Amino acid sequence: xxxxxxxxxxxxxxxxxxxxxVAAAWGRNPTGGRVAVCPPDExxxxxxxxxxxxxxxxxxxxxxxxDAVFWGTSRPPFAEGPSLAFLTAAxxxxxxAGGALxxxxxxxxxxxxxxxxDAVAAGSARIALVVTSDALVPGPGTAFEGRCGAGAAALVLxxxxxxxxxxxRVTRCRPHLDRYxxxxxxxxxxxYDARLFREEIFLPTVxxxxxxxxxxxxxxxxxxxxxxxxxxxxxxxxxxxxxxxSAAYAAVGDTGAAAALLGAAGALDxxxxxxxxxxxxxxxxxxxxxxxxxxxxxxxxIDALAGDEPMSYTAALRAxxxxxxxxxxxxxxxxxxxxxxxxxxxxxxxxxGGRCVDCGTVSTPPSIHPTCIACGGPKLEPVPVARGGRVHxxxxxxxxxxxxxAPLPIAVLDMDDGARLMLQVVGDGHDIEIGTRVQLVxxxxxxxxxxxxxxxxxxxxxxTGAAS
Amino acid sequence: MSWNKVAVVxxxxxxxxxxxxxxxxxxxxxxxxxxxxSVDKGFEPAQVEAAFVATQRGTLWGxxxxxxxxxxxxxxxxxxxxxxxxxxxxxGADAFRVGAMAVASGVHDVVLVIGVxxxxxxxxxxxxxxxxxxxxxxxxxxETAPVLFAPFATRHMHEFGTxxxxxxSVAVKNHYNGARDPYAHFQNxxxxxxxxxxxxxxxxxxxxxxxxxxxxxxxxxxTTAERATEFTDEPVYVAGFGVATDHPYLHEKDSxxxxxxxxxxAQRAYAMAGIAPADVDCAEVHDCFTITEILDIEDLGFFEKxxxxxxxxxxxxxxxxxxxxxxxxxxxxxxxxxxxxxxxxITECWWQLRGEAGERQVEIRxxxxxxxxxxxxxxxxxVVNILTxxxx
Lengths: 468, 392
What we know:
The complex is a heterodimer.
Chain A: E1 4-11, E2 15-18, H1 19-25, E3 34-36, H2 44-59, E4 68-72, H3 83-91, E5 98-102, H4 108-122, E6 127-135, E7 150-158, E8 164-173, H5 194-214, E9 218-222, H6 230-238, H7 246-252, H8 259-265, E10 272-280, E11 283-291, H9 301-304, E12 309-310, H10 313-319, H11 339-349, E13 352-356, E14 362-363, E15 380-384, E16 388-397, E17 408-415, E18 420-424, E19 437-448, E20 451-460
Parallel strand pairs in A: 2-12, 4-5, 4-6, 9-10
Antiparallel strand pairs in A: 1-7, 1-8, 2-3, 6-7, 8-11, 10-11, 13-14, 13-15, 16-17, 16-19, 17-18, 19-20
Helix pairs in contact in A: 2-3, 5-6
Chain B: E1 6-13, H1 24-37, E2 50-54, H2 71-74, E3 82-85, H3 91-104, E4 110-117, H4 150-160, H5 164-178, H6 192-197, E5 200-203, E6 205-206, E7 216-224, E8 236-245, H7 260-273, E9 282-284, H8 290-299, H9 308-313, H10 330-333, H11 338-353, E10 368-375, E11 381-388
Parallel strand pairs in B: 2-3, 2-4, 9-10
Antiparallel strand pairs in B: 1-7, 1-8, 4-7, 5-6, 8-11, 10-11
Helix pairs in contact in B: 3-11, 5-8
């Protein structure tokens, strides 16, 4: 059965770490380039949400029409836990949505893509959402540290419609170690021997898979490039020509499990064959996409990866959890495993309100509003609160205990459906005032007892080219 | 015609401040002794028939569960009925109202209302700042106390052209008054430039727009209007009171230019006292932040909505202004030991109505003083008490 591509989306943090700053910290020769690094309130799940939201919007697909979600990320937010359930709830998917979480190496993105395509081909999903994301956490001082970035790409697949289809695929497995992380280890280990990795592990398998696909008339390539050089070496050895993926690598760095699809997403903007090659964990897979006319959303990919907010190396270490303040941090009033989170799980992740059947007012969140705040009516129906609105009033809190990071803007918002919310605002508050147009984006509010706490924050709307 | 069924016959407090050297119980005993000593014709502690204790944040000294029942032992009256009243920042004001109702009901003839609060036994981070992590995991996260009032400042400035100088003028006036109050935490004057140049705490509020964290205690003695003259020839009567609630979360508010609970509580108190805002000679109002006092003096009916900032800057609320506000220095200078705050404000009203406020004394023309607190997350509750020196 044909597997069609209905829409594509991408996301990346707006903050950038300069490779030169990383090199300087370790007394190495300066290297160029910048990579995207998550601020403390973004991670692989929020990036996945943002890319998936963009892809669904491009495809014109409601989240609750998605039959299955396939999420590939080398490091899901829970080593064991409800990572995929959190993502589907935040996206607004049906509670009956199927799918799978693919994890454990940078190959997880290719696993998600092939498994999602197979689900549509098999007829078990009419619409499958493939999401690939990563926010790499390299070991400080390791060889690839300055190239480790963060980003996400998502592809909506369906049995019909769309303007492209999934084609041939090839996989090569070899039981070799490359970069890896042992059980319970927080960061990726450095390569044992960089030359050994290059000549005996990376190049042989990636070249073999690339050569297999090169027998087709490939117009654009997404090739793995973990160090800023290996991608062009593969291209040279296989005659593939300059890979289209170099634009994404230049914008955000190596994005692990997201790199292969992210490197191809922008190339879905023109007719012809696009080849996607991804590698990691001893496996390399290549997939062809046959583009007839531009895939919806592809033209917005590069804009979605834009970012120019500088982040220092120490700030990056802090955001990655590798530099922690001395002393105790203030714990949440209720533990994230407790009853309040069980009661509020759907309404927090899905940002639900209770719409009054009598007067239409939306009271938020429903679990603490048995009656309408406007008329006292007892009949409320759960609805997702509008994701766009304007700042009614705001503050910027400069006086915060750890683990909070100041300055922290907080705004009261008039949402487009008439609901009122008070939420944290992304950034330092310089871009908001009364009346500022905002969009809600999923962010991480806290991380405590191993549990990331997610919810929506407001972000000043970009004038053009918004990813969400 | 005012209510006037209950009289204040004694009132006192301890010097407010960072009282690292005093326990909760020692502060309570100090305030009780001061109230007893203030009774003109003498008062025996054993005359107290029941006590109402206001303590809002027992967590700040490790006693969230109790707090009320340590007070009778501390003041040598173990055995008496004693009830803790907690109603957010108006806890002291509401304990006073509850105590007055206990006397008016005929159950008790002589009642002690005492507010005690330990704010500094825990560090700022563990104490008030930890509020930022309390409550709803998302809708209140990051919500330190200034976050509950600064959005009103942003909006008041936007709608009425209120300026940071107008906000600062409140701090300048209250520090001026505090410098003349021997019980105040801060007894130094500040200038508008000092306030403007102080570090930002929560935009648009800066450090001197905010009240300090203060330990303190205050106590008043209540009896029936009929028995008041057994204790003093100059009793102060409870003319009326009002309490109101509003939605507690900020995103539920109708307006960010008024504290609705204050407007409703004031309407009820004025009706009970049979007076109008113009009859009030002086007022102790809730100035946890400068913007709060500007909202208060509008919502209490002293000034038109939107005029509070201008009126403050032009001195209409100073000791010699049209309506002197926070003659004690207010929360900004005297301090805000939460449960004690309302009771300490009652004490200031008692002194003003009896002509005992010294350098701070204002002209008492009509014989009415007003006390007010608001609080409870996004000002979900407000209490107004009105006192008078007129028997009928």
